[in-house]
Amino acid sequence: MAILTLALAIGANTAVFSVVDAVMLRPLPYTHPEQLIEAQSFSAHDSRGRAISYPDFFDWRAQSQTLDHLVSYHDAQYTLIGTAEPLHVDAEITSWDLLPALGIRPQLGRGFARDEEKRGANVILISHALWQSQFGGDPGVVGRSVNLSGDRFIVIGVMPASFRFPVDKPETSIWTTLSVDDDPKDPHPQVASRGSHFLNAFGRLKPGVTVQQASQELNAIAVNLAKQYPDTNTKHNAARAVSELSALLGDTRPALLIVLGAVALVLLIACSNIANLLLARMRERQRELAMRSALGAGRVRIVRQLLVESVLLGILGGLAGCGLAYLCTPALLSLIGDSVPRAADAAVDLRVLTFAVTIAFLAGIAFGIVPALTASRTDLLSTLKEVSRTEAGGRDRLRSSLIVGQVALGLVLTAGAGLLITSFLNLRHTRLGFNPEHLLTLTFDTPDTKYKDKREQFYREYFERVRALPGVQQVGGIDLLPMTDDIATISFENLEHPVPKGQEPSAFLTPVTPQYFRTMQIPLLQGRDFNERDNMSSPLVMIVNRAFVDTYFPGQNVLGKKLAPGATTNPDGSRPIREIVGVVGNNRLRPTETEERPMMFLAADQLPNWCCLFTVVRSSVDPVSLESSIRQIVASMDKDIPVVEVHTMDDLIFRQMAQPRFAMVLLGSFAGLALVLTVVGLYGVMTYAVARRTREIGVRMALGAQRVAVLSMILREAAWLLAIGVAIGVLVSLLSSSLLGSMLYGTGARNPLVLGLVCLTVAIAGLLAAYLPALRASSIEPMEALRME
């Protein structure tokens, strides 16, 4: 029983530690990773990190004296054409010094040169996996020209198999320079737009420079830029540097630490249980230990012997726990999914095994030391004279104290699990603002090199052909799909109430096609939907949601109002004016959002620069069954366009809820295990107490005590232990409730209903555990009990 208990506790600890080790403890796979920092822009009035613009990045890089390198990067996607079949590849667009900043060399070829940031450079580095899968591992790939979405690029290097950047995106296959963002056909290219904030940036500290010094310097630069460019940088008037590992972890650190703390509490409860078992066993071994003392064994010798026995139990339990962790880690990783960066690297390796052996050894000492010290204080003379194997007397204070501690810890874990379960149920039942059932989503790229002047016609034909498929009810398109991580917040000008530039309000913005709202079943509250006549030759229009109206035009009729969102610019640099023609209901971009977000929707056919849309298909049949037909439609229209990111909306929602789900499942599992161990421990204590008091109970019943009185006496003693443990657990739960605050949705950290139900559950479980020993005590025959003496 002790080995099984330890195997469960140590196995759980080992599996969780393997994830914590991979995510939080292992250094990033670059040279001197402790020198890497993430540079973040933010507002002095809002500490949330924001992206930066190219001109700001160039100024940061030029003015910084604390950084050896400062590198910009952002995501991109391309279609690799010319291989066996067109391939969608994830890419990163970076500044030239990506590899020098990381301290990495290519496996073949070279890295970027400084002048390859200039317009028209078009050079790429490819991943080892892409090199093997699409180029057969040919060393001659360096210098070869490849077709990416219709543009020609030169391969200048192949990266090592172990290289990943960014670390949390292992599928990245191509890296190219920011020269691709300097479009010679665009009068306002991204590299020159100070108001276009979409870049991430990281840097390498100079030797001897601290993160705090770099942060102070970046903040000073940001303050000066805000004064110099108030039109674009008022909301980006501060900056900071944080360690790259801390930036990578983000809000996943609290969840991991809470899960690690929960599984450590399970180990404490297991150790307490085994200590109770050993204390009971010491009672049975009193005569043996007294005999050893009589034959010359000193107290230290006896303690040492008993600790060796307990450590052996611990090691055996630890070995069994390692096997359990090896089996459970894959299931744990599937539960975590992509919600925790680097979690996929977790494995039961030598580091993790060392941890398991160490905690097994320490657990053996922890649960063995108290029984060993207690047994070593045996009264030699009285023990050797003792002929009875029973004892009269009250409760064992030490064993009772251990049970009280178990009840308290079990209640703390169960209360935390109850809060997370309540939070998760709230997330599951939150109103998304659209109907996710029977929705299929997918996307593909229509590059400017081929479709800039005929994209509207292509998509119109494509939607008509998809709409004609059997089982399809509605089809629409959107650039930034809900339940993904793609968000664009754009400022807008209110022509009726102009404000200084840099202080304009902002809202989420995305292009959509006609019928998108009907496909998603987002209600139209006022005005009209987009239609096929909303194109480049018609007046510019837009639709907003209810949260937009409530936030910026409360109590007003917004139909007909004219705004100028910053999504596009006229040749003279001004923003095109758009008329609000409709108001739709609110819909959430993520299930974990706590507030309704103001949104602006533009007609896709009135935007010249977008190149891809997510297709949203509502069907009367299984939406997955439509995938092959849609792929055939796209292939028949253009064989060089691969269809990618095919998911049902339910799948996307499931992925978005991965982090709260894994925290809830793990904490709930550990709480359940803790509750079981607590119940088993209480049962053992009460059983042992009844066995010790057999003669006393026999005397009571011989003197006229009723069975009901004996039953209530034993249950009353258990109830006292439970009451004390529950009281302590409630106090600890209230004091530690703030730890879960950031992980809760729709419930407070001190939910009296949840805490009350948890207390009731623990109390009922504890009383049930005590009932069987109490029933056994009430069934004792007085003459048999007395005859045992």
Total of DSSP H or I helical runs spanning 4+ residues: 24
Our estimate of the beta-strand percent is: 15-25%
Mean pLDDT: 86
Fraction of helical residues: 40-55%
Largest sheet: 6 strands, mixed, barrel
Describe the structure.
By secondary structure, the chain is of the alpha+beta class. The chain has three domains: 192 residues, no CATH class; 307 residues, no CATH class; 194 residues, no CATH class. It is 48% helix and 17% strand. The protein has 24 helices and 22 strands. A six-stranded mixed β-barrel has the order 3-4-9-6-8-7. A six-stranded mixed beta barrel has the order 14-15-20-17-19-18. A four-stranded antiparallel β-sheet has the order 13-21-12-22. A hairpin with a 2-residue loop joins strand 7 and strand 8. Helix 15 runs antiparallel to helix 18 and helix 20 runs parallel beside helix 23. It starts with a helix and ends with a helix.
Architecture blueprint of SSEs:
Layout (H helix, E strand, L loop, with lengths): L1 H24 L10 E8 L2 E5 L3 H10 L3 E15 L5 E8 L3 H5 L5 E2 L13 E4 L1 H8 L9 E4 L2 E8 L13 E6 L22 E6 L5 H18 L1 H4 L4 E6 H6 L2 H33 L1 H9 L4 H38 L13 H27 L3 H6 L11 H32 L10 E7 L2 H4 L3 H13 L4 E7 L10 E6 L11 E7 L3 H5 L3 E4 L13 E5 H7 L9 E4 L12 E7 L14 E5 L8 E8 L7 H11 L6 E5 H8 L1 H35 L1 H9 L4 H30 L15 H27 L3 H6 L2
Parallel strand pairs: 4-9, 6-8, 15-20, 17-19
Antiparallel strand pairs: 1-2, 1-10, 1-11, 3-4, 3-7, 3-10, 5-8, 6-9, 7-8, 12-21, 12-22, 13-21, 14-15, 14-18, 16-19, 17-20, 18-19
Helix pairs in contact: 1-8, 1-10, 1-11, 2-5, 8-11, 8-13, 8-20, 10-11, 13-20, 13-22, 13-23, 15-18, 20-23, 22-23
